[in-house]
Amino acid sequence: MYNDYYYRRNNNFWYGEAMKKLPILVQATRMLVCAEDLGMVPDCVQWVMKELRILSLELQSMPKDPSVKFGYLSRNPYRSVCTLSTHDMPTLRQWWDEDWDRTQEFYNTMLYRGGAAPHPLPGWLARDIVSQQLTSPSMLCVLSLQDWFAIDERIRLADADAERINIPANPKHYWRYRMHMNIEQLLTDRDYNEQVKELIDEAGRK
């Protein structure tokens, strides 16, 4: 009875509800539609996304396969958006220092490096991580400004915690992140822009 209610009847019901509303929304725009399909997601979500060709959201630190600790970027579906963090999550630099044991495992198994993982996250290693994301099969790779800044220790904020956008569990922590330099400064930083261009070119993205 439990399985029938939650895993058959509810799946069928919410699939039907989604297919009443979502096709109209998807067809109303030329924009690509992306789902934030993270966490515990009912089976019907995948049915709807496949049928309507909605892009999934892929985070290596939150794999959809329960049998692995980190997602394998090479297995990302083409119809997906690859990213390192969302507005409700720690930035790459914060995540790196959050759980040293988990970071160490990531360093050894996903970055294929021996020895102890360096802390805090050095720019050269952040660059490697960003490069891996860019070379994934995902149609889009969308990284936050904070994670892009992480590759250059010269321009990134000294305090990684100041880069956090939102902490959902803390009502006093609101969306207060502001970029610490203006667009004009960023545009004239030739060294940084060259690094970004090089990473994108190496990945074959445009």
UniProtKB/TrEMBL annotation:
Protein's GO biological process: carbohydrate metabolic process
Pfam family, one: Glyco_hydro_77
Gene Ontology molecular function: 4-alpha-glucanotransferase activity
EC number of the protein: 2.4.1.25
Coiled coil: none
SUPFAM superfamilies found in the cross-reference section: (Trans)glycosidases
Chemical reaction(s) catalysed: Transfers a segment of a (1->4)-alpha-D-glucan to a new position in an acceptor, which may be glucose or a (1->4)-alpha-D-glucan
InterPro entries, sorted: GH, Glyco_hydro_77
Subcellular location: Cytoplasm
Top-tier EC class: transferase
Cellular component terms (Gene Ontology): cytoplasm
Keywords of the record: Carbohydrate metabolism, Cytoplasm, Glycosyltransferase, Transferase
Main location: cytoplasm
Family, as annotated: Belongs to the disproportionating enzyme family.
Protein name, entry field: 4-alpha-glucanotransferase
